[in-house]
Design goal:
Shape: elongated
Structural class: alpha/beta
Distance between the termini: 32 Å
Strand content: 5-15%
Largest sheet: 2 strands, parallel
Number of helices: 7
């Protein structure tokens, strides 16, 4: 089976396109903690907006969702690329990823924002664009893996070179 990203809408279209007598489909998804989209509370089943939406769509399509143990982001993406996972939730559609994945239409809109403590607000009040971080010599803490837009992709190497980017 070729590795692919099956977003919520594509999962429904893909699964319902199968003949009725075909073997039941089962898709593997590794969990991650990303409240409120996916999260686990002690002694309870995983839940969250993305997970519940995915479960509902797959249930309607007659597919089973096999939840795999939680994995760090980079390992989860590598396993997807190798074909041992069938789905990734909330994966941004990029040209590079389209080479190995199939994407649903967007099922939610997000924005990425910077935030500061209230007492530091006057220092950053004039900051209107991401490239202003470099001019102000501001350090940024950002996720190690993910797509956060063209402006961030362009600025990331410069922030790294200047020692102003830490990733987690």
């Amino acid at each position: 089976m070729q590795a692919r990203t099956v977003g919520t809408t594509v999962a429904l279209l893909y699964a319902t396109a199968l003949p009725a007598q075909a073997a039941p489909c089962q898709l593997k998804l590794a969990l991650e903690q990303w409240p409120p989209y996916v999260y686990s509370k002690p002694n309870s089943a995983p839940t969250g907006l993305d997970l519940e939406l995915t479960q509902a769509i797959l249930r309607e399509a007659g597919c089973a969702l096999q939840l795999m143990p939680e994995l760090p982001t980079a390992r989860r993406q590598r396993q997807f690329e190798q074909g041992s996972l069938d789905m990734l939730l909330a994966a941004s559609d990029t040209a590079e990823r389209r080479k190995i994945a199939r994407f649903s239409i967007p099922y939610r809109t997000e924005s990425v924002n910077l935030f500061v403590r209230t007492e530091q607000l006057p220092r950053y009040q004039q900051l209107r664009a991401l490239d202003g971080l470099l001019a102000m010599q501001v350090s940024l803490l950002a996720p190690k893996v993910g797509w956060y837009g063209t402006a961030y992709a362009k600025l990331q190497p410069q922030l790294l070179a200047a020692g102003h980017l830490s990733t987690f």
